[in-house]
């Protein structure tokens, strides 16, 4: 037991990788499709990797705004080492790992860092939902209930992010899990706005990357608007708490999105499955970079 407590990060990483392997083996997603344009695929990967770096920058931004500054390298390390935690059943393990790494490295209160991370995740989902709503309004073809659902979620998150309601909820959640009293300092509007900009850039980078992925695999002359399907898929994949890593949810969302865009069903299936493999490579990129930074520090 002492070993587990002392080496919790190592145990967490190995456990994450084991559940990742099990999830992928069960889903059978590791199938390499035919590539139509290698140049477009390269561009897709560049935007994919850029999105992960911007995501780490957003994490650094919100911590600094809450008076818990960290270096960019450490923000990459904490997000990268925890990236596969979402494949562990329960979905919250990635957040536990990310907050724990920062708290241990800088000797910050883990309860406070965890509260800030919850706020960061709310902002990220909020931005993703806004882009998703823009996408489905532009495309059309969805049931009115979908528009209402996404709009309602955006409204709820807006209240949580910009009001004191968030402070009350976060404090109750952290107290329940940490079993200790603490005062959660909610982020300022300025800090939230800056963090939202970084998350917006991260989302757009992933969306543009997905657009080039579609072109590279299909040769389909799709409008740039198609890329927003990635925001819709990632957001609903994240919200599917009971599904490790959102496996299956993203693919279903992307299939429906691509068929509405005019992509043939067979090709839409191929792209939606390949997208999982593509995004996994991005996760491996940020994980590998985090491991490298951890070894050099």
Topology:
Layout: H1 2-6, H2 8-27, H3 38-65, H4 72-81, H5 93-106, H6 110-139, H7 144-162, H8 165-178, H9 189-218, H10 229-239, H11 249-260, H12 265-296
Helix pairs in contact: 3-4, 3-6, 3-9, 3-12, 4-5, 4-12, 5-6, 6-7, 6-8, 6-9, 6-10, 9-12, 10-11, 11-12
Query: Can you summarize the main beta sheet?
Result: none
Please count the helical segments. Answer: 12
Rough outline: globular
How many strands appear in the DSSP assignment?
A: 0
Any idea how many domains? 1
Written as H for each helix and E for each strand, in order along the chain, the element string is: HHHHHHHHHHHH
Radius of gyration from the CA trace?
19 Å
Secondary structure class reads mainly alpha
First and last CA, distance: 27 Å
Level of helix content? over 70%
Task: Provide the residue-averaged pLDDT.
Answer: 81
Main attributes?
12 helices, 0% strand, disordered N terminus, mainly alpha, 297 residues
Description:
This protein is an all-alpha fold and 297 residues long. The chain has one domain (2-18, 37-296). The chain has helices spanning 2-6, 8-27, 38-65, 72-81, 93-106, 110-139, 144-162, 165-178, 189-218, 229-239, 249-260, 265-296. The longest helix is centred in the last third of the chain and has 32 residues, at 265-296.
